[in-house]
Amino acid sequence: MADEYFFALTLKGKNTNEVWDPEAKGAGAEDYQGGHKLIIKQALLGPGATEGEVNVIQVEAMTWKDSVKIPIATLKAGGANNQVLLDLSFPDPPVTFTLIQGSGPVHIVGHHLIGGPIEEFDEMDEMEEEMIEDDEGEEGAFLGKSVKFKLRKRLGNFIAKKLEEEEDDEEPKSKKAKTNSVKGKTSAKNNTKAKK
Asked: Residues 29, 104: one domain?
């Protein structure tokens, strides 16, 4: 299971550059299945922001083939643009946040996701194998609950369909004249029905 932590940073004054790189701080991705992931949800100006000043936040991050630098938010104190909701996902550290215009303070908030430790995934695999072995020991081959349910449903539908077909087959037979098995002739009772 992934662990989720609150993430926040502030860009202001001389501190206009901040790098998110948990692997450089000793939490290596090789210890975790799924590594690290950063999700940014909001950027907002702090109460000390200069009225009317435009603040631009830029991000430098990796794409699937190279690094990219791009502005992600423009904020202006004293107006309606003093905060912005974001939904940015950065699956690969490092990610660099830079205040390329303005003096802030600009607060950036989100979530830091960490994949579960590799040992945890190994334990889960072992538990799954034990459960499968237990189920196989009880009733032969293992079938999951959902598979059993689907088979029962299909079998039920199949049986219902066969019963309907038999009823349909019996209906025309009852309308036909029946032959007397002893003499191979139709009975007088059925013969009158057939003539009508």
From this structure: yes
